[in-house]
Design a protein that fits this description.
about 170 residues; 2 domains; two-stranded parallel sheet; about 15% strand; globular
């Protein structure tokens, strides 16, 4: 399957986005483009999908968007897909623990499996794995780094805002 890759600039640094031929987002990850990424000539639909994602991310980071409507197409196992769908049900400004997610899935003993699926999430921010916390309410691992997780949770009002020096995530 051909994927079209783009680099997006965000307050958290560059992000890599990959779209399929139907304009659905397959990946959104921290870091820029990989030199091995091939970028076939994009159709109008792909360019519009990229522009739409860029606008929605800008609105999210300016606190004017709480729910994304970008078409998603993550790839994973059936269990991972169930976990990622449950992550999308965690509202803006709220959190859930791995155990709560496992219970919501009807699999209360699958806390570790939920954690592994959370860690395999290919679409950062839009599938909000940053909203998952430890059972004791502590902030626990995040593939994008704990500073980014804290930033996102502060942006959403879960944590108290803190003045950040300009350029913290740049370069």
């Amino acid at each position: 399957m051909n994927l079209w890759h783009y680099e997006l600039e965000t307050p958290l640094g560059p992000m890599r986005a990959a779209f399929d031929g139907r304009g659905r987002l397959h990946e959104l990850s921290f870091g820029g483009l990989d030199p091995r990424d091939t970028v076939p000539v994009a159709t109008k639909q792909i360019r519009e999908a990229h522009a739409f994602l860029s606008r929605q991310l800008a609105a999210y980071f300016s606190c004017t968007l709480r729910t994304f409507t970008v078409p998603l197409a993550p790839e994973g196992t059936l269990f991972q897909m169930r976990v990622w769908e449950e992550l999308r049900r965690i509202p803006f400004g709220q959190t859930a623990s791995y155990h709560q997610l496992a219970e919501r899935l009807g699999e209360p003993r699958a806390t570790r499996a939920v954690g592994q699926a959370n860690g395999a999430n290919p679409i950062a921010i839009l599938i909000p794995c940053h909203r998952v916390i430890g059972a004791d309410g502590s902030l626990v691992g995040y593939g994008g780094g704990m500073e980014r997780k804290e930033f996102l949770l502060r942006l959403e009002g879960v944590l108290q805002p803190v003045e950040r020096p300009h350029g913290l995530f740049e370069g």
